[in-house]
UniProtKB/TrEMBL annotation:
It comes from Cellvibrio zantedeschiae. The keyword Transport does not apply. It is an enzyme of class 2 (transferase). InterPro entries: MeTrfase_CN4_CS (IPR017985), SAM-dependent_MTases_sf (IPR029063). Keywords: Methyltransferase, Restriction system, S-adenosyl-L-methionine, Transferase. This is site-specific DNA-methyltransferase (cytosine-N(4)-specific).
Length: 418
């Protein structure tokens, strides 16, 4: 199997220029090489239980394979679906844009989650564009709305995500996983209809040009995008021929907060629903009040790491950080057991992970995943490391109190179900 550095560097422009810039994940080139050198039969099914922005499902379609992409965040389902657009999908899109007008009626919500950052005029204009995308249809749940979307609608939603991101640029710090909030009503954003309409249309046009520039075509329906959790994968036993994925890293990144603006746009039930989705995602920074640490065995490497975190002298190590990390490993172990259940005998499980630190304690996540995988009959075949000097840990200047160097390693793990 051909393995290159999974980092998103030197990517072909026609594959990434018009997609949502999701900070997490691996490159299209890495994915393409893995799939093409995997030796899968033509009728093989590729599965990604943490599909994110849809790199696995896109490159599986490009290679002509059926794929299933699972993610609990509805924002990611929309973006991954948008990536499935081909030239035939966008013929009517430019004509459709000419119908965008401020007279389109939209659904008002007193508890609109966009009010965290935007004034009422901006909210009205954003919701007008959303109503245009939905053909003025009304939905009573976020799930029914997202499940109803066509690929074209997902393209248009992704353009609106990018438009909102541009408006919020002053609230997005160097850490791309955190969105600041206005300190007062005066700091909230106001935007005229003509301004947001023109910017939105330009973003859609750029995406259309990107689709036109791509030479890739494939049969419709190759990729199945599903909103769901890796803790309970909605697939039959022994039904998948290869898993290619990257789980949330053990770096306390709140993936819900990272997509708060997009969730605010989608959530039919407002701020409360956004918070509920955030708490349900793997890697959430919220923690349960009590945990029973005697219920789980994660392997020697993980148990030793957690023991050191629990006994660390720094503030809140025992009361918060230990609980946070413990619940992460509970989810990771359950997810690996589910992956083992759904893949066929002799099938490959390819996993991209990165090590990290808690204060001065090394979290050897690749080794932890090796230990957990072995528990469920997934045997290690290969382990390839790539040094990653640019990583999320370097954004936290306070970490230098505990260690001077913060070089991480991106590791590609290859397992086989025995």
């Amino acid at each position: 199997m051909l393995i290159i550095n999974p980092k998103r560097i030197n990517e072909p422009a026609d594959l990434k220029s018009f997609w949502y810039n999701y900070y997490a994940g691996y490159s299209h080139t890495f994915t393409k090489n893995v799939i093409e050198s995997s030796g899968l039969r033509a009728d093989g099914v590729i599965f990604d239980p943490w599909n994110g922005a849809g790199t696995t499902t896109l490159m599986a379609s490009v290679a002509g394979y059926s794929s299933i992409g699972l993610d609990l965040n509805p924002v990611m389902k929309i973006i991954a679906s948008a990536k499935q657009a081909t030239k035939s999908d966008v013929i009517a899109l430019q004509k459709q844009l000419s119908k965008l007008t401020s007279k389109i009626k939209y659904k008002q919500n007193e508890n609109d989650a966009l009010s965290v950052w935007f004034k009422s005029d901006a909210i009205a204009n954003i919701r007008t564009i959303e109503s245009f995308i939905l053909n003025q249809a009304k939905y009573f749940s976020t799930e029914s709305k997202v499940d109803s979307l066509t690929i074209l609608q997902c393209l248009m939603y992704t353009a609106l995500f990018n438009c909102i991101r541009e408006l919020l640029k002053n609230f997005i710090p160097s850490n791309p996983t955190w969105i600041k909030r206005p300190k007062s009503e005066a700091e909230k954003i106001s935007v005229a209809w003509s301004s947001i309409k023109n910017r939105y249309k330009n973003i859609v046009s750029d995406m259309v040009l990107g689709v036109d520039a791509s030479n890739h075509t494939w049969s419709s329906g190759l990729a199945q995008l599903v909103t769901g959790t890796s803790l309970n994968i909605p697939l039959p036993d022994n039904s998948v021929d290869m898993v290619l994925t990257s789980p949330p890293y053990c770096t306390r990144i709140d993936y819900g907060v990272a997509t708060l603006p997009e969730l605010a746009l989608l959530a039919e039930d407002g701020i409360g629903e956004v918070e509920q989705i955030r708490r349900s995602l793997m890697g959430t920074t919220t923690v349960p009040r009590e945990i029973d640490s005697h219920l789980n065995f994660f392997g020697d490497t993980c148990d030793y790491f957690l023991k050191n975190v629990y006994g660390h002298a720094s503030k809140a190590s025992t009361t918060y950080y230990y609980k946070n990390l413990y619940q992460y490993f509970v989810s990771l172990k359950k997810s690996i057991s589910e992956i083992s259940r759904v893949i066929k005998k002799d099938a490959k499980f390819i996993c991209v992970v990165q090590d990290s630190y808690y204060k001065d304690i090394h979290c050897n996540l690749p080794r932890i995943i090796e230990d957990m995988s072995l528990m469920y009959g997934l045997f290690g075949l290969e382990k390839i490391e790539f040094e990653s000097k640019k990583n999320m840990g370097n954004l936290n200047v306070k970490s230098k109190v505990y260690r001077k160097n913060n070089t991480a390693f991106e590791t590609v793990l290859i397992f086989k179900k025995g």
